[in-house]
Design goal:
Elements lengths: L1 H6 L1 H14 L3 E3 L10 E3 H9 L5 H18 L1 H10 L1 H12 L6 H16 L9 H16 L26 H10 L5 H12 L4 H8 L3 H20 L27
Helix pairs in contact: 2-5, 4-5, 6-7, 6-8, 7-8, 9-10, 10-12, 11-12
Amino acid sequence: MSTLSRSGLDAVQDEFTNLVSRDTLWVTRAEIADLPEPRVPLSRLRDLLLGGTVSDGLADAVWHVLVIRAREASGPWATAALGMALPGLRRAARLARAGWRGDVEDLEGELLAGFLNRLQTVDVQAPRICGRLIDAAVRAVRRAGSAETVGLLPHALSVGSAVPGPPWDHPDWVLARAVAAAVLGREEAMLIGATRLGGMSLAQAAAEHGLTVSTTRRWRRQAELRLRDAIRAGELSFVPLRSRPRRKHPALSGGAAPE
């Protein structure tokens, strides 16, 4: 596993391709009831996830199994998790390279190490497992470089006004910067904004995501704790924003949340 972290994304691709070709890893309906077949090999599982046709619930169920097996068996299942997440990791690496002044191999090493470290602790009961693993990988890259290296300097807005700085930030800006810094996923920021600022109840948010209220509350709580820690650590002080954050839910423009 450490070899993968040092070798970069191309090495992960090679290892994953070899793993898929052996066709020795699979999941079953006994583990995931909604699988289309009684036993689904890793190659088919990858195609299902990358095809964009599975529900978020099924994708999280698959990632639940991947994470648990990676923790228990390490080796091939950790490689499987990396390979399944490779498209997202490659995209994250491309975005991070714009402000990275070191070697690309170092960047990819930090990215993979962040993913693998988070693999051991990520909450598999909360939604968006793969997205949160990639978020953690991006944060690892950001921590590895100085503020100058990753280019975290204030930018002017496209409309000509400057991004307001602390302590006068509007909460929308704080959430937008948290997404830009990969502290929060977009869905997490929308959840916090809608339920804390926009008047949406947790029950309404849970219904929109197809989750229970308790799961939604735990999801929001974990996101808010990461946001709190990032603010205290100064991670959001100099994050580039080029335009005003766009609200995707009308509830965001309302008053204070009831919960």
